């Protein structure tokens, strides 16, 4: 049996249309489909064939605008080279910035935790009540928004 190595790409989604304090209305399925379209456009059938079996959008947080993409080791370079060229996801004008590429999901979540903690510290000054701060912390530090069951359909 052969073990397949994966790479996890942590991406920040920047949208000038939506203010920083409002969440994006972004689903991981739309993000995944947009990424596949761009890879098809830039790398053709070879890029799609190399990535089709292992490409998943593992995590997409609308509050902090961070997503994690899983790709197989090797073809993950097609993903990282295609990300800067994505300018529209659905109806949103966006700019994608690669934050981290890791070998395990655990290390990506550790990186996100540090990144989101600094994001929280910068936004806490704008909030007035303690209840607002607790609600923001709960939304930002929520790592349960993985849409794996939606992405399973594309594997089979």
Structure description:
The two termini are 20 Å apart. The protein has helices at residues 28-51, 76-82, 105-123, 130-140, 148-155; strands at residues 6-14, 56-61, 66-72, 88-89, 92-93, 95-102. Mean pLDDT is 83; it is low at 147-156. It has 156 residues and is α+β, with helices and mostly antiparallel strands. The chain is globular, with a radius of gyration of 16 Å. The protein has a domain at 6-104: Ribonuclease P, Pop5 subunit (Alpha-Beta Plaits, 2-Layer Sandwich). The longest helix is centred in the first third of the chain and has 24 residues, at 28-51. The strands form 2 sheets. A 4-stranded antiparallel β-sheet has the order 2-3-1-6, sandwiched between helices. It has a two-stranded antiparallel ribbon with strand order 4-5.
Globally, the shape reads globular
Strand arrangement across the biggest beta sheet: 2-3-1-6
How many strands, what sense, and barrel or not for the largest sheet?
4 strands, antiparallel
Alpha-beta classification: alpha+beta
What is the helix/strand order?
Answer: EHEEHEEEHHH
Residue-averaged pLDDT: 83
Query: How far do the termini sit from each other?
Result: 20 Å
Would you state the CATH class of one domain?
Alpha Beta
Number of helices: 5
Q: What name is given to the CATH topology of one domain?
A: Alpha-Beta Plaits
Radius of gyration: 16 Å
Strand proportion:
15-25%
Share of helix among residues? 40-55%
Work out the number of β strands: 6
Considering the protein shown, what is the CATH homologous superfamily of one domain?
Answer: Ribonuclease P, Pop5 subunit
By CATH, the architecture of one domain is named: 2-Layer Sandwich
Indicate the low-confidence ranges by residue numbers: 147-156
Keywords: Nucleus, rRNA processing, tRNA processing
Protein name: Ribonuclease P/MRP protein subunit POP5
Subcellular location: Nucleus, Nucleolus
GO molecular function: ribonuclease P RNA binding
């Amino acid at each position: 049996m052969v073990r397949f190595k994966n790479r996890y790409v942590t991406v920040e989604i920047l949208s000038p249309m939506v203010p920083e304090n409002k969440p994006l209305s972004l689903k991981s399925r739309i993000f995944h489909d947009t990424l596949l379209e761009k890879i098809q456009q830039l790398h053709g059938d070879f890029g799609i064939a190399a990535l089709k079996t292992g490409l998943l959008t593992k995590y997409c947080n609308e509050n902090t605008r961070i997503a994690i993409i899983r790709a197989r080791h090797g073809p993950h370079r097609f993903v990282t080279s295609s990300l800067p060229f994505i300018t529209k996801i659905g109806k949103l004008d966006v700019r994608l910035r690669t934050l981290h590429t890791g070998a395990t999901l655990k290390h990506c979540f550790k990186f996100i935790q540090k990144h989101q903690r600094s994001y929280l510290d910068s936004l806490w000054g704008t909030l007035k009540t303690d209840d607002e701060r607790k609600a923001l912390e709960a939304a930002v530090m929520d790592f349960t928004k993985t849409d794996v069951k939606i992405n399973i359909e594309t594997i089979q």
